[in-house]
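Exercise 7. Predict the joint structure of the components listed below.
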Amino acid sequence: MAGGDARGRATILGRFVGRPAGRLFAHFLRESRTAAGIIVWIGIGIVLAIIVMAIFAPFLAPFDPNTKVADPETPPGGRFVMGVDRSGQDVLSRIIWGARVPLAIIAVATTISLAIGLPIGLLSGFVGGRLDRILVLVMDSIYAFPGLLLAIVIAAIIGRGILNISVAIAIIYIPTYFRVIRNHVAAVKQEPYVEAAIALGMPRRRVIIRYVLPNVAQSIPVIFSVNAADSVLTEAGLTFLGLGLPPGIPDWGFDISLNWQRFEASWWATFYPGLFILILTTALTFVGEGLNDILNPLLRKKDFKAKVEA
Amino acid sequence: MTFDTPDGPVHAVTDVDLTIEKGTTVGLVGESGCGKSTLGRAILRLLPENARISGTVRFDGIDLSSRSPKEMRDLRGRNIAMIFQDPMTRLNPLMRIRDHFIETIQAHDPNVRPEAAVKRALKVLADVRVPADRMNMYPHELSGGMRQRIMIALCLLFKPALLIADEPTTALDVILEAQILQLLQSIMHEYDMAVLLITHNLGLVAEFADRVAVMYAGRIAEEGATVPLFREPYHPYTQGLLRSVIDLDTTKLYSVPGAPPSLLGESVGCPFYPRCEKRMAVCEAVFPEIRLVGEDHRRVACHLY
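Solution:
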């Protein structure tokens, strides 16, 4: 039965929630040769490389990122692969060290927003009624603000620091989890197997955890990586505006703000941090888009879509 | 039983008074949308939020309508169970069959260990003639008939006193249909259950039900013991329904003319009036109360009697 097969494939991640991880991985390897698979692997590779770079920064960076090592604005070449900025610091070393902050912030922020957005999305979608209407209203009003603007306000209120920026960014992305999960749950709770579970006396909590959650789980990694990509930009924007970090911590967005006015004299000090922001964002977007294709194969299958429309 | 909709209240089920004796099967028949399934769900309180229920459901001397949601939850699956018409989609596609059994048992007895639950499940699976190796499969690996047997087994875990079977065989082919119903019947005797068989298939009712209730527009039009009711239907709607059964001797297929009335808003008179062949002046204005007519506790809602 074609419909049954498609359903099984559409929910690979849900199966992963209930079953050993090996299956998911095997599925990934099988999908590796498709365009989506290649894109995911490129994205994962780049993100991993940047993570490795951040972890081993003390060994990889040729110079201390906060020390003057040469004449200001020495062009790239020789010992300074990416040149020297206006304060005489090595750009490459600052980029290697500067990967730590965005990665830490993204990890903390997206985890916080997942930890808050997922459960309230599940609850809101499943319970419905007045609670749902109130939560949707609150979340939509957060969502309606431009992300960076909201983050600026929150960061200004709670002050500087890596954890504080993380919280500010987390708040911005809670509604994206909430919306996607809530809408998906609202659809899944109409499924006959949910009614059957209730008719068999399943408590609400078990219905949500065992019947609803696995069937909406395939959306989570996609939102996760898309949010991560977006939060790189938000984080860079915040630090660029000087709202984020205490001084002395190397950060790509902060470095751009330090050097952009000297762009004509020393383009490299602005260009390379910007390039790395771009690379990390693009890599995370690749992961998200590719996962979306792999986890929701029906989006991709043109023959299936054509059949449905016919 | 009323649904609040943006267009106003819809009276899906009205003034239904139905008794199911222990160990018997009551067939509930009627055309699509007459409220059969809604009635079945109302017993278990499986209705959407916009449903308003008045009246009482008495089960084993207890008034279910006054039970708390938690008490109701424990009752479902344990004392009253329900099987549905679409077995293909009634099992969680991401859970193996064994996990369905474990979840259901633990929902009522949280302290049962998974191994013990599986043991219990295997006994019931044998009762519904499902091989034990199906336990490790996912729903999509099983046929519709197999899945319906598994649904039945899930319902039987706690030997419920009442089983609501909402068109249990509509999605199955005729051979499976007979198998599943014979299975249900033997299990019914074995477990001493009462069964509410909701269906639009009159043949099934004739064969398996002790009593029949015919529903029309959310009300019971006629109710009585199966054999006399089929032999001599009183209500014009029942007569029409029985004439609609395919008969090989006559080539023409009979259908009751017209369509069921909208259940939106209040109505006066007999709901079957516009389609009735024997309508009288009184039918348009006065609603016929259901009352005992003739022998063997036949009840009919019609001005003719």
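Discussion. Chain B has one domain: 2-300.
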